[in-house]
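Example A, followed by Example B.
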Amino acid sequence: MDFITGLPRSGTGYDMIMVVVDRFSKMAHFIPAHKRLNAAACARLFSDNVIKLHGVPQRIVSDKDIRFMNKFWQTLHYLNGSSLLFSTTNHPETDVGDLVLVHQDAFGVNIRYTKTQPVLYGPYRLVEKINGNAYKVDLPVINLEDRESNVQWIKYYKENPNIYQKPPRTEREMLARINELSGIGGWSEEPGKEKTYDVYWKDCDQTLARKVPERIFNQAALSLRQSLMYKAELIQKHEQV
């Protein structure tokens, strides 16, 4: 699908031609249109001139931007009595109950050593769909205020129990395994809130981290805490060079 512009205005007011070419048969439709044609009006022209003859295509190639094409497809399906749910490579067909990873930006906090901290946290379970763009995520108790997350910040997670152990999810599990810490990715400090550490656990996926409250982190052996903090400081100094 393409558009021929820069044409003189016709007697009926048209100044653009919408061109639709079938990739297989090379059959073409030349549809008179207006230069100010928006996505919804474009979909109506497509439905009236193409779909009524050939049905709904499986794919449309166009150089229009993604926002235009999203609205185009939504209108097209609405006109034909169906609904359209968009998915992306990050969250394909994400449903309530699925496990997802949450991007660090979703937490909206400033964390030290951002280059050493993980980009994704989790996995967490989706517990409620708020609307087409947002879900409620089963984040730990320490993050109750951040349970609602936009779909742009979540990525579908497929668990593979044959490779890694599961990191602790609850505070009780964290306390039971507090001396199994293997690294610190960073920490966050906000006025009026408890300090939290982004930590890695032995025998777990080292690309994923859990947020641990300071009161629990301090239950680890002093020698372990000092060793992990020393390594984190070295990494931070190396990045600043």
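Example B, a separate protein, is given below in the same form.
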Amino acid sequence: MSQSGLGPHTAIPAHQFGLIAAPLIAGLMFVLLPESLSDPARTLATILSWVVVMWITEPIPLPITALLGCGLCVVAGLGNMQSVFSAFAHPIIFLFIGSFFISEALSLHGLDRRFGNWLLSRKCVGSNPIRIMMAMSLAVAGLSMWINNTAATAVMLPIALGVLRALRQGYPNMENFDTGFLLCLAYGAGIGGVATLVGTAPNLIGVGLLAQQAHFTISFDQWLLIGLPLASVMLLVMFTLLYWLHPPPSHSSFHEGSPVLKISAPLPWARGEQYTFAVFVLAVMLWLLPAILSVWFEGDHSVVQWVRAHLPKELVPILASGLLFFLPLNFRQGKFTLTWKEAANIHWGTILLFGGGIAFGELMVETELAKAIGQGMVAMFGIESVWGLTGVAILTALVLTELASNTAATSMIVPVLIAIAHTANLSPVPPVLGACMAASLAFVLPVSTPPNAIVYGTGRIPILRMVQAGLLLDAIGGVLIWGTLRILGPILGID
């Protein structure tokens, strides 16, 4: 008869360990934090330490931890119910919902499989999973250079799932490779956003604050000459790292002309596919519309400003996906391209998870915990040169962006960096650029950035795998950012 309970040599499962470790670590955090920290900041740091340990060990579902963490913030008096939980109605939450609706329709009508088969049929890609993985990485990075990182990931995810489904037909033991393949989407989107000035919000925030507070202007081409080489090297490093951590089942299993991966002739497009594809293209075009209009008009032209104000990126997938409920497959029978029963299958847990991440980020700003973290790291490492400050700025941004959104992290740290640089009589430009670029390298947790949350929502990425790959890529990325600025900054006159 088996005996219940833990024996003297029985290992504690990770999820059970989390239930014990999370409150202990939170208690130690509360006791060991410096007295100079305000009471609200100390309380929030304690709650966040509990949340992070629970997220990593996952004794309960991650979305529930996010909800409980927000609830503890209300109980602790860090905000009322409305102010804390309003994050779950943040505009980006609706970008998630609309994008998930479109993704559900793409999968429902088989467009993900059609796109996946099309990609596999390209001669330059073939049936080699390494080239397929590289092609997907380049595609999502190329998109995120010009459109929102979240939108780029949402666009590519159904295609990636279709490719994996096609590969899995002959190679069932693909779980490990699935993880690396999907992480390529999230990480590639973040890296692609670094390449151009308009690739992601932190770039524009940092450049804007430099112009406003330091009277230094960074042009589009100056950013491109730094960002594009950095993004190219980062993509290569990302691909190599993920391939090393998550290789295909066997190198010899995949070869050109593999009968399993031969693609049959495509079938005619059904009406549901046509409608869904039209909505998909509409969403992408609306996301690109401000950039397209900027080619013909000045950035401050009334037409461009109207589009940006009335068609924000968060609204686009809501409007586009709404059409799916109107476009009929059989009007007499009341069958439409997407029904609510089908739409309700989206990953609601991912939405709750990221809503919690937004709430924690806003509270970090309000309690000035983020500011204290930034100042503490600067004081810890000291400042002797502009490149020393740049290294500290990159490290601080990497830490903050894992707990708050990249936009919030940049908004918090850039003003502090400019003030410190002026006080020390140093140039603020390299530290600010380093922080902006590092803020896009949020690779460790699902809540660190929307692309992470989107791919985590597929259920195919164990949290510890994301943490492992994310920490390694963060460390390498930080070094690459510093090295790129150190080499190219003086050449371009921005040191």
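On Example B: Residues 1-10, 252-261 have pLDDT under 50 and may be disordered.
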